[in-house]
Specification:
Layout (H helix, E strand, L loop, with lengths): L3 H42 L5 E7 L3 E21 L5 E6 L6 E2 L4 E5 L2 H36 L5 H33 L2 E3 L4 E3 L9 E2 L8 E16 H13 L2 E2 L4 E5 L10 E6 L9 E9 L10 E18 L4 E2 L5 E6 L5 E6 L3 E3 L2 E4 L8 E3 L12 E6 L4 H5 L33
Parallel strand pairs: 1-21
Antiparallel strand pairs: 1-20, 2-9, 2-14, 3-5, 3-8, 4-7, 5-6, 7-9, 9-13, 10-14, 11-12, 11-14, 12-13, 14-19, 15-16, 16-17, 16-20, 18-19
Helix pairs in contact: 2-3
Length: 431
């Protein structure tokens, strides 16, 4: 009979093997569950949430169209100071660069010879008047005697004719005296208009003549100045058609001026007229405005910019310039978020600038959501999470969305409709 311990040993071995098998099964099950959890976590990490993108709801607006043109200022009155008689300049009676009044003496030309001519003419006139007076008395006496047949009719007629001839001499000598007086007065050269006088081209002792081409000096009226600016005839025609069709309403005739150093001129000008003739060389039309200049801040010849109000335009759709893409074929497009929050490409017509925005004339409608941020990272069909912004908010500013009509200086480009070049802020063309 075998011992009890020898009988129990095989059963213990089987129990130990079963325990090892159970432990291995539990370990494999745990590893499998851990692997599934890791796969689930990896799958979750591989499917990120849609990108947050700023969008701008496009809404119709009423804007003031301002056309900015350049031009040069000119004086409303300009007069060259010229001598009307020959002679030597004895005195200069003004200070260069100062204001002068109309009729103020400016130069004194030597009057000696003209004074002598005047005195001679006056003496000749006096002699002619005395001769005429005597002839008239004689003629009247003969006429009285002729009525009583005291003298012949022939003698009477001769004395009457001599008196008439002497009267004609008096009239001629009066005209000669008047000419001498005018020439004597012209030896003092007067200011033809009131204004600012420039430098003198002649000094004391210089000989001047009435036929010379060089002016002694120039006087310019600076209290008001003209601005002549030009615009293309095409723009003028388009504006007239827009007014006729009712797309734009007439604006004010006030004109705002920006000086050469960029400062706005405090006085507003007004538009006088638009020339009716198109320049055959440049194809442009001249607009003339007048500006008050009480402090003489403006000077003739200055190159300035002027903003002309062309009226208001209703139901305008504006988008930031940096969201419009120009393709090589000249077409323009923007990215929008469709109803399913997917990125879509919309072809638009945006050729007119308004400040830092484009006026979209076709391709968009009210309520469209234009994408304004992360444009380089987007592609057509991508699902996004739109974040609505409004023009003028901090979010819009941070994303590069300018306020609609922002700033008083928002102006229309001087060549708005013919611009086809890609704006420097546009993003590269998307396929």
């Amino acid at each position: 009979m075998q011992p009890l311990s020898s009988l129990l040993r095989p059963q213990r071995r089987r129990a130990i093997r079963f325990g090892h098998a159970l432990t291995l099964a539990l370990f494999l099950t745990a590893c499998h569950k851990q692997g599934n959890a890791s796969d689930d976590a990896h799958t979750a990490a591989a499917a990120p949430s849609p990108m947050h993108v700023n969008v701008l709801n496009v809404e119709p607006q009423t804007i003031n169209i301002v056309d900015e043109l350049s031009g040069r200022l000119s004086a409303t009155e300009v007069a060259d100071v010229r001598p009307q008689v020959d002679g030597i300049i004895l005195k200069r009676l003004f200070v260069e660069g100062t204001s002068v009044k109309k009729g103020q003496p400016l130069y004194q030309i030597d009057p000696s010879s003209y004074q002598a001519s005047y005195d001679t003419a006056r003496g000749t006139l006096a002699k002619a008047q005395a001769t005429y007076s005597a002839a008239l008395t004689t003629a009247q006496r003969y006429e009285a005697l002729s009525r009583i047949k005291g003298v012949s009719a022939q003698d009477t007629e001769n004395y009457v004719a001599a008196a008439a001839e002497d009267k004609a001499d008096v009239l001629t000598d009066q005209a000669t005296l008047q000419t001498a007086r005018i020439n004597l007065q012209r030896t003092q050269v007067l200011a033809p208009i009131a204004g600012q006088i420039g430098k003198s081209a002649y000094t004391v002792g210089a000989l001047v003549t009435a036929e010379q081409t060089t002016a002694l000096s120039t006087v310019q009226a600076l209290d008001t100045l003209y601005l002549d600016a030009t615009r293309s005839s095409v723009d003028a025609l388009r504006l007239r058609e827009a007014m006729t069709s009712g797309q734009r309403q007439a604006g004010s005739i006030a004109v705002q001026l920006t000086m050469e150093d960029g400062r706005p001129y405090p006085q507003a000008g007004r538009l006088l007229f638009s020339d009716v003739t198109v320049d055959a060389t440049t194809g442009s039309v001249t607009l003339r405005s007048v500006f008050p200049n009480p402090d003489h801040l403006l000077l003739p010849g200055m190159f300035v910019r002027a903003a002309f109000s062309e009226g208001t335009q209703n139901n305008v759709l504006l988008v930031p310039q940096n969201v419009v893409t120009r393709a090589s074929d000249g077409s323009s497009s923007v990215m929008i978020a469709d109803a399913n929050n997917k990125v879509a490409l919309r072809t638009v017509t945006a050729n007119t600038a308004y400040g830092n925005q484009w006026i979209v004339s076709s391709g968009l409608k009210a309520g469209d959501r234009v994408l304004t941020s992360s444009l380089q990272q987007l592609s057509v069909g991508m699902t996004i999470t739109p974040v609505e912004t409004k023009a003028g908010t901090d979010d819009a500013a941070a994303s590069g969305v300018p306020a609609a009509g922002s700033g008083a200086a928002a102006t229309e480009s001087s060549l708005p409709s013919s611009s086809s070049a890609t704006d420097s802020t546009d993003t590269p063309a998307r396929s």
